[in-house]
Here is the input.
Amino acid sequence: MKKLISHIIWIRASVLLIVTLFTISYLTAQVQGKIVRMETSNTYKISIVPEQTWVHPNSITNSASLTLKVPTGGFLVDQFQSLTGTWKLAYRIDSPVEATDYDYLVFWLATPLVNFTYESGVEVPLFSFVNMGECTGDVQILDIDADPFLPPNSSNANIGNQFTILGHGKGNAYKGSLPSSVSAKCTGLKYQIDTSSISCIGDSSRLRLIFLEGVAPLRYALKVGRFRSLIGTIDAVGDTVYMSEQLPPGDYSMLLTDAGQDTVFTRFSFAAPPELDILVLYKEDISCNDKDGALVHVIPKGVHSDQTYQLNWSSGHTGEQVEGLRGGDYQVTLTNAGGCSVKEMIHINEIPPVDIKILETIHPSCPGAKDGAITIDVTGGVGIQYFYEWEEEDLPKQWDLTNLDGGNYSVTVYDVSGCISETQIQLDIPPPIALTMQTADPTCPEFEDGQLLIAANDDGALPFKYSINGGTYKGQTEYFDLPAGEYKIDVVDNNDCTHQEKILLTEPEQFDVELGEDITILIGESRYLVKGDVLEEKYQFDWYPSESLNCDDCPNPIAKPLETTTYSVLVTNETGCFREDEVTVNINLDRPVFFPTAFSPNGDGNNDYFEIPHGITTTEVVRLRMFNRWGQLLYDSHYSGGEVRWDGSVEGKAVNAGLYIFSAEILFDDGRTLPYTGDVLLKR
Here is the structure.
């Protein structure tokens, strides 16, 4: 039996050791980055080498990124190819302030790797690319421990090398690089591209290519269109060739390959010269009898402040600003230092003054009516188009206005030349209909005793006639016995102008007084008389009788009667309406008195005296006497100096513990004094 137990313990320990070793391997295994330069000098391949074998699902790689670091100066990724999974160049940061001599290229895994197996020590090629830019120096995988541009950085760029592999567990599975960089094998091919300058818009330039170093012959292909290139050969080092076509401004690319198979892909641009133009900053037309002539101010566009230029006017003037010009056409020529020129024609008009004539005014028919109209006629100016600005912004900008009310209208008219004229037109306002109304609301809810008195203004078009709520028009101005509600008063004056006003006769607030059912209390008790909702203090309250109430004009008084009493209340609102109710307070003549059954006069401050507490209905204990069981009088409060309580002693000596008899006379709130007897236990 002991041998069997030992064998089981050995098996469990072995399993625990295996699980522990597997867990450690599972958590610590990592991958290393690797960069190699291919046989073609400017082609690079990026790989990783895992330290652990992971099969599906442990091989699932949810995300990954790698950052390359190259000397700044024109490194250009081209012909990018994903080898395992789908990779892309996410972004690049050129010459950051933390490392101004380097550019950083960040590559991302675009979609997770799912059906893939990592084998320990077996290289996994990720992607490759060709540097089609300048050969700037060594290409290296980012050092994730010491690079100066690691986050946080000035560009807020999340650069780094990161692999999230399920089998590795939480955290980054990327460990480091082997090797971390490769030296650049820069081409021996050297060349020079030269262009003649383009000085004027529309000109072209001829490109010159010089073969400086390399293995002759040099073949070139200059792309000049989407589907067209200029192809040629330079036979010897030091020779020069001119392209067969003039090239307009734009961006170009050229592929160069010498006999030694060195290849360079380069891009360059011909910048277009700035476009010349003459902008008329300010121009006056001669208007409104102006005798000083026109002022014209132009500014040249397309010349720098440090360059010379000329502005020549056909009038013989020079410069940007000319004064005193009369009506007519003027040609201005701008010529820059390179001899390029542009012309602009400027026309100045001679314009007569603008004249406004009032053709018609129609005054409003009634106060508030919008049936007035104004018509004006405008002549002068350039006679092509006039612009109308009425002082009231909501009026249409035109020469005739309708639907106007009375008042003063001011209009300003100007034309395209800037000549301005203004005038004012008055539309008379008829006398208004003004009413003064006095109202009186109904005094009580559902009463029909409201009143309406109407007074009209004396300066109106009298007489006025009135219609109440659509009734017949008549001269009546006083209305009585009106119920609560809204009233529409329509008025018509002697000119048939109308006016309407509305008034509201408000029905007083409905209120009820409900004191509830009758109340029964003990003699000496007090109660509020209102059980339900209590009315607000804005009402007037009159309670009767008031002798046993704490107040007779408050919303909810407290009653403390000594006998059964019926109380009534009269509640009046601000308009004189009233409500009343009553409630009876019945007196229960039971007189509950509570006597202690024991006390312990031992000086501990607790129950040291036999005393009768006051109840709800009692006023005071008039007299208290104590007897022993043989009837001997031991204590009488009449002789105790005012205190009505017994301390368990006779003439200063403590009596023995036992049962004692008391006799008490108690005064109640209604003035009656009743006797009570009983016994109490004295404890020592």
